[in-house]
Each structure stands twice: as C-alpha cells, then as structure tokens.
Write a structure and sequence with these properties.
Two copies of one chain form a homodimer. Chain A is built from nine helices and no strands. With about 200 residues, the first copy, chain A, is mainly alpha-helical. Chain A has one domain: Tetracycline Repressor, domain 2, CATH 1.10.357.10. In chain A, helix 1 crosses helix 2, helix 1 crosses helix 4 and helix 8 runs antiparallel to helix 9. The longest helix of chain A is centred in the middle third of the chain and has 29 residues. Chains A, B: Keywords: DNA-binding, Transcription, Transcription regulation. Chains A, B: GO terms for molecular function: DNA-binding transcription factor activity; transcription cis-regulatory region binding.
Chain lengths: ~200, ~200
C-alpha cells in the first residue's frame, strides 16, 4: 500500500502540480482510505516529500574505501532523486511552505534532515577511522556542504547540474570537510601526507 | 528616489509580507509614480530582490591579501543582507516564483547572478596571481560553493547561521576551490607548499 500511495502521489504531482495536489485525489486514485494515508504521513507536504525526494530512508551509506567515494555514491543517489521532474515540481513550493509552517519545518528537521545527517556522521566516522580526516566534523555542516549545495544549485540558483557538476561538488565538499577537520584537530602547518 | 523606493519596499515587506506587497502600495507611500518604479525594476519581484538582498551592485571585492580573506569579506556582507528579516521574508516566495516564471528567472540569471559571479571571477584571478591557486576555477562553481551554500543554509535547510558558520563555510569553500584548481591545473601528487 505504501508503494501505491507514493507512486500515485508522484503521478499526480507530475499531472496537476504540487499546489493543486490533494490527499483526497491520492486516496481515490490509489484506492485507499484517507485515514490510511494520514497514519503514514502527517501532511500532504510530507507525503509528497517522501514520494519524490526522500524515499522514506536515506540511502544506506556504502563503504567505498574513501571519503570521496562515499560522498560521490551518496551525492549521485540524491541527485537522481532531487533532479527528477516530480521533485523539481515539489521543491520550491515545499521551501516556501517550510518558511511559514513551523510545525512542518520541525517535522522536516527532526525526521528527514536528522536521518540524512546521520548518514554523514557514518561517512565521517569511517574517514576518521581510515586516517583520512584529522578528526570528526559536524555532520550537519558536512551535509550542508554537499546536499545543501546541491539543493541550492537545483532549486535556488536553477543551474544545469550534470554528473560533472555533482563530481565537482563532491571534490569540493571532501576538501572542505578535510580542511575543517584539519583546522579543528590537525597539527597546524603539517598536513597529513596522502598514504 | 531610488533610495526612497527601496526603503519603502523593505518597510512594506516587513509589515505586510512579500506575497501581499504591491507596486501600487510602494508608489503611494514613497510618493512616486508607478511608471518611475517600472522604469527601474521589471517587476515587483525584482524591486523586492534589490531592496532586500542585492543592493543593486554586488559589493566591491576588496583585496584582503588572501583567498580566504577575500571570501570572508564577501560572505559577511552577503550574510548580513541575506539574513535580514525582509530578505528571509522574500527568499522562499522568490524561490518558488523563479521556478514557475522563466522570464523572471532569465532576468535573475543575467543580471544579479552574473554580477555576483563576476565578483568571484575577480577574487579567483587575484588568488591565481598570488600563487594561491594552481589555475582558474569556474566562477559559477565558486559562487555556488559559498553563496549557494549560504542560501541553502538560510532558506532551504533553515539552519541557524552565525558568524562561526559563515567562517566554516568560507574555510570549506576556499579548500574546495583550491582542490578544484589543483585537480584541473595542478601537478598530480605534488600539492603546492604554503609559502
């Protein structure tokens, strides 16, 4: 039933746009009760966000053997979701809704953002364990440097974003995370040699 | 008259909010004709953007003697503008308007974004001349890494942003720009020694 609700939501966002979307339409076309939808999602915005961008869970972070590789795998997964037509439809409307709806914003922060930041915490922990980073870095800052920047490129600055741009963002984010770790934990003036 | 129009626009955005703002209100309260406003600004959105965030011109980029210093000066100026109450009011609404209004988006790209990117081009040029960067970097990418990220923190992710966060973003952006220059122009495996 989850799958049917989310699939129907994506279809309707592409057909009628996010502003015109209603939970009633989704319930009717998916053949489920509204109560079933509201048991799963607190609001239309949350249902739409899960259907388009978030996929309920952040992607499991795969150990690729390097900080750059781990960030690239994550960025490619998110780019595929965030650049899809339904996500592009939803994002600007969701951004303005979050700005004026503190309840939705709190839910967004506590649920989705926290889960994404937890994935960055795992990636950072592995990089510290490998000796790639001089110490830990705030996962919220790392998240901002990569996925925040990607969201800005797609939804605020409306730049064309292809895999080369995603790779540039990953290279820059990995260097930024490394520099912050070095500043906070490193021996000043003695950057670690790459092994 | 420019100053009066922009000041009145800021006041009205704070009083009634951006969605309810009209060019008529601004004309009446500022004591100017609507034609005078439309000679200066193509739309309500543009007038509001100039009044809150852009200040007509990007800040002159000051040569502070280092890439980090130049970026920090720029980021602090933009942070002060972008975090002001009227700018926070406007931004989410402007983001959704840009997504559905290609004329406004083109104007935004060609005027404001291009001017900001030109400032980054100057900063990068100076850093290359100083020997801080191995070669030039796409100014649009540098702009995205610093101001795109800041916009995302303020308007998309709705994070608290103080001067420490701005400084972290600058440190990360400087490292990211340096890494991209090194990747594209540097001698592989031989990072430049800090002088």
């Amino acid at each position: 039933m989850d799958h049917r609700i989310l699939q129907t939501t994506r279809e309707l966002i592409e057909e009628v746009g996010y502003p015109a979307l209603t939970v009633d339409q989704v319930a009717t076309r998916a053949g489920v009760g509204k109560a079933a939808i509201y048991r799963r999602y607190a609001s239309k915005a949350e249902m739409a966000f899960v259907a388009t961008m978030h996929d309920r869970q952040p992607p499991p972070s795969v150990d690729t053997g390097s900080l750059h590789g781990d960030l690239l795998a994550l960025a490619r997964t998110f780019h595929a979701r965030m650049a899809a037509p339904a996500a592009r439809q939803l994002a600007p409307a969701l951004i303005s809704e979050l700005a004026v709806n503190p309840v939705l914003d709190a839910r967004f922060q506590d649920t989705f953002l926290a889960a994404e930041q937890a994935t960055f915490a795992e990636i950072i922990e592995r990089a510290v364990a490998r000796g790639e980073l001089a110490g830990t870095v705030d996962p919220a800052m790392a998240h901002l440097l990569l996925l925040g920047c990607l969201a800005s490129a797609l939804y605020v600055l409306c730049l064309p974003v292809d895999d080369a741009v995603v790779t540039d963002l990953v290279t820059a984010a990995a260097a930024g995370i490394t520099a912050l770790a070095e500043r906070d934990h490193g021996v000043s003036g003695a950057p670690a040699e790459p092994s």
